[in-house]
Design brief:
Blueprint lengths: L1 E5 L2 H18 L4 E4 L6 H12 L9 E4 L1 E3 L10 H10 L6 E3 L8 H14 L5 E4 L21 E4 L2 H6 L14 E4 L2 H5 L3 E6 L5 H9 L17 E6 L7
Parallel strand pairs: 1-10, 2-3, 2-6, 3-5, 6-9, 9-10
Antiparallel strand pairs: 4-8, 7-8
Helix pairs in contact: 1-2
The structure holds 2-amino-2-deoxy-6-O-phosphono-alpha-D-glucopyranose (GLP).
């Protein structure tokens, strides 16, 4: 894995936004995998700034988000879809966005539809990932076995607490289930870039990079990827 360390989260965000802009200049039809959570917010701000100053063209790109809560419709203010609209989709010209529908009548079909859509788009070129403090990526939670493909999953209490900020600060209001791209969906991306910032992520960053590949730390599977990068701020990297 390639590890890059930046002084601050903002410097990381600026460098990654410029990197994405360069990829788009070379491949306007880039297929981007996108995360939610607090970590990518500076990146989305930076992409919006580049867009405003005419330095990035996302108009022919396609995006696929990693996950969504079950039972939360796309226009619900607490959905990841709304999060993406607020932080990115409404701020840049981006026509082909894809987010799982957590309120679909048939969730298994919705997962299959999503896998087909990714395949039809030619697969994901650059998958940006956040890191759950318990080692999850997307909503692939630590478990004795992991799902390969997009699936319905149960959220751990720690993950519901981490997402409480979207639900008025109440972990009990966070849905118990979610839809998520699977490990193979993520690992089949041509390039994976995991971003983690803040001191709270340091222990997990250490286990992901230096520990064994284990389903108890789903992010550790990135060690098996041909082109995985981990971009950190200084405090997230202290244990390396
Ligand atoms: C959620 C998302 C993950 C994300 C994680 C980390 O659980 N499903 O994709 O990486 O949160 O969130 P944060 O960036 O807020 O620490």
């Amino acid at each position: 894995m390639i590890v890059r360390v930046f002084a601050t989260p903002d410097q990381l965000a600026r460098a990654l936004a410029r990197d994405i802009a360069r990829c788009l200049a070379k491949h306007p039809r880039l297929v981007l995998g996108l995360p939610t959570g607090r970590t990518p917010i500076p990146l989305y701000n930076e992409l919006s700034r580049l867009y405003d100053s005419g330095r990035i063209d996302l108009s022919r790109a396609t995006t696929f988000n990693l996950d969504e809560f079950v039972g939360v419709s796309s226009n619900d203010p607490r959905s990841y879809h709304t999060f993406m609209r607020e932080h990115l989709f409404a701020r840049v010209k981006l026509r082909r966005t894809n987010v799982l529908d957590g309120a679909a009548a048939d969730l298994d079909r919705e997962c299959e539809r999503y896998e087909r859509a990714i395949a039809r788009a030619g697969g994901i070129d650059v998958q940006i990932l956040g890191l759950g403090a318990n080692g999850h990526i997307g909503f692939n939670e630590p478990a004795s076995a992991l799902h390969a493909r997009t699936h319905r999953t149960r959220l751990r209490p720690a993950t519901r607490r981490a997402n409480a900020f979207l639900f008025g600060g109440r972990a009990s209001a966070v849905p118990r289930e979610a839809l998520s791209m699977g490990m193979a969906t993520i690992l089949h991306a041509r390039r994976a870039v995991l971003i983690a910032t803040g001191a709270a992520k340091a222990p997990c960053v250490e286990r992901m990079i230096k520990g064994p590949v284990t389903p108890m730390v789903p992010a550790s599977f990135l060690q098996l990827h041909r082109h995985a990068e981990v971009w950190l701020d200084r405090v997230a990297a202290v244990r390396l």
